[in-house]
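Form 7-S
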Amino acid sequence: MQHTLYPNIDELLTPAALSRLTGQSITAVQSHPLEAFYNKSGSRLLAVETNGGDGPRYILKGVSLDWDWQMRATGDHSCRSVGLWQYGILDRLPSKIRHGVIACARDGDGWAILMQDVSRWMLPYAPIRKQHNKKFLAAMAALHATFLNDPALKDPNLNLCTTRHVYTVFGPETGRRELGRGDEVPQRILEGWELVKSELPADVVNIVVPLVNDPTPLCNALARYPFTLVHGDWRHANQGLIREDGKQRTILLDWQLATAGAPAIDIARYLGTNSALFPVSKEKCINYYRKQLARRLGNQFDESWWQPQLELALLGGFVQDGWAIVLKATTWDITAHQRDHWQADLHWWVEQVRTGAKWL
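Output:
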């Protein structure tokens, strides 16, 4: 089912439109700017309150190439988060996942995404419980099984990230291009990749640095294997859990880095960004996800593609996030209290790089 974009925010946020969209009686609408610590792309947020604060509350996310550096880095000239809603892909997500999007609108040269306010159900930066970790991994497997080799993902209207975008969005070229435009992340990207050269063994540097600058061999290798809808940014700040109809469901926000790619691209990102919060080892996370995916795919699942795409994607996980992992292991103030963990984590990723390189 396709959805129609509202022509502007004013029409989207009328009481009549919100009443129609939500099935609730909305008589008045107010909005004000909202700050979110983990919003690192440059997008802008509004809190939308209704009925004088007594009605339902929503979040309006504004995105534009003018202020969102990740959109610029991934060639997102049509807002893929909006496209996934507009062309019905989000409607097809498995029942385990809630995306929160209600409607979308144009906003001048940019776009606006109206979402349910799910802030109270989102994960804090705190240890993840075992049962919750399993919920997330099962939801990830359900997503990947639902869209395995789905030709709908090839629709150019979606303008999904390419795998090249996946592995260059946090690369040094992006850092150099975006430096001085007001966001701290590009500077951190450059610092991290410089540290990679001095902190890693020479053989690993010789694998990683060429791929960071040109991931073509990695992209070509992954293209040999099945593809699915990859969320692309499966980290704690985009994850939550909500109970509906007696069942706990995964909230998964921010689809701006979505791509059609190998399933394990998501598990690699999940491991790289959430590592310090896990209740179990990364190996146990991978094994649980694998079992869930195999169960859902049945005879579509095969070790002949599973293992190579996993090992390549783990190599890719470091090509994507190695800058941050090295910073967390060495100099980044925000993770100083977890330094020992990230130093051990860095050693783990070094071995994944060596293992994955044989498939290039």
